[in-house]
Amino acid sequence: MLALILGLYRSEADPKEIRRSSQSFALKAAPIVHEFRRMSRETSIGYLEAFRDAEVPEPKREPIHIVEDDYGVEDIFEDLHDTSRIAMLQASKKGYTQEEIKKAGESAITGRATRIVADGGRKVIEGDIERGQGPIGYARVVDADPCAFCAMLASRGVSYTGLMGEGEGLYRSDSFIESNARFSGGGKFKVHDGCQCTLEPVYKVAGKIKLPGRGDELARAWARVASGEKDPLAAWRRWWDSGTLPDHFDGEILEGEKKRPRPKPPRRGKDLTPHTRRERAGEQKKKDFTASDYRKWAKQYKTRADEVARELAEFRKMGKKNDEIPVLALKEEQKRLVARIKAYQDFADTMDK
User: Which helix (H) or strand (E) holds 112?
Assistant: First the structure.
């Protein structure tokens, strides 16, 4: 599909006549994109049936609920026309060359066309799940190289049917507005241009829920890296994009990860003998840590533990159960923080005696 759209765009787009050429392109491209959107819908219907048959015993299977597609050729024309026109006009205003203007249009058009086609299939799955008679909910499945925000959303786990209204739960409107204005969508499953995320129905089989794709892995990573931080999404983005761990991270550093140089709380009973050349030369030695220092660190860990507890409370409000990986991962992090708090408080108490 992209090869067809790109070839058409390159033959029609003209940086000297942005409005006219954008309209000409959109008129020819809209029927092509609409056909691929129809194929995407058919693929999703087949996927839903195969997934249901694999997960649900035959006596309990419900028929797939097919929602009509209300996004027609005219809508696609308007979408592609506006996307091309705006992208090239913005590039032109920045003083780009004609070749650069055309490249900007190509990038915008391919992202938007991909989204329009993929949304056709996504809407089929979302419509069946939202009916609430088959799967218990749905989960976001990311591609091989998702953006940080999509990865975070996938880590949230199952979005339960019948429990959330528009803009609630996993896809709270304030999260999208504050974090990334590229995300939008008429339903609860928000995407951005070029987004390759899919949503997958989730069934409870033999009393257990397993997140599809990398969901379990991402849930554990979120608990390890971002939960309890003052700005968890910023901490997640920094780690996802560069491997940089939060300043207060005190766990095992894995391959590809790094920390910014920063003093950190010592372990209990840490040997304070001189280790650096300056210390061995008799220069000022590190001070001995006091009970007040350990209580300060315990207070910092308490703040983080409280944030993890708040996130757990949000999960439970969303209908999540204690046996789901996102909840289990947060509870494990909470347990680790509580143990560290107690250790520092106990050590401070012994120093007072």
Answer: helix 98-130
